[in-house]
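Board notes (copied after class):
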Amino acid sequence: MDTHDLMVLALDMAGMQEIPPDSAIYVSGEDIRRVLIGIDIGAGELLLARTLGYDAVIAHHPVGVRPGMWPVYRRHIDLMVAAGVPEAAARQAVEARLESLAVSGQSDNYDQVPSVARLLKMPFLNIHSPLDEVGRRILQDVIDRTLAAHPQATLRDVAAAIGALGEFKCATTEIKILMGNPDAPAGKTVMVHGALTNGGYDVAKAYFANGVDTVIYIHIAPPDLEKLRAEGRGQLIVTGHIASDSVGINPYIAELERRGLVVDRIGGVLPPSHC
């Protein structure tokens, strides 16, 4: 495989036609047989990969595209509309954060890590929202199956069902019910993931105002949580960043291995079993 093949595989798994702005191939390479993959990759991991004889390195989180990746946040609009939020309300919910992301991206030293990969001649890419979308679908399927089997399933039941996945068993973090009585019915529940970053206060509020009982984020900023709690509307579960990202990365690793590649995890990618 080459670096293009590595990217296309992830796009195919996510049902995407083009490389999204939060993913990129920084250094191309061919005849790739050994891969090092991590959630966060820096200069040290690249040097380690070169020293240990890897043919390519894959980061999950963006490293060289931050100034231009903010449009991926618009994916929240699609997720909200699919859950029944009117499009106008969904667009309004992302407006302020979109501008903030676009402005803050101008301060990023976007070439720091890719420049190291170029000097090392180490094939290097990052794959973000495609693998987050793979993970979102898996997590939403767990939620949907739990509620289909037990329509009165509680927040505690939903959290336990997600927690039964191997990545969460291996995680240091715990799934947290941050809003709502753990024994209350979860009701209509949406896994909000795969749109660059969490939707914060505005996106959760839009869900709650339009028929969604429970929002599940992988993380949330404390000020956003405080604002949501002050309003006292809706239920919120946070699953944990690293474990949740790993849920989408591991099926991709399995596909690479099925194609004969040797893949090693680093930088936070939790195994689906055998911690």
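Comment from the instructor: The chain has a mean pLDDT of 98. Residues 129-149 form the longest helix (21 residues).
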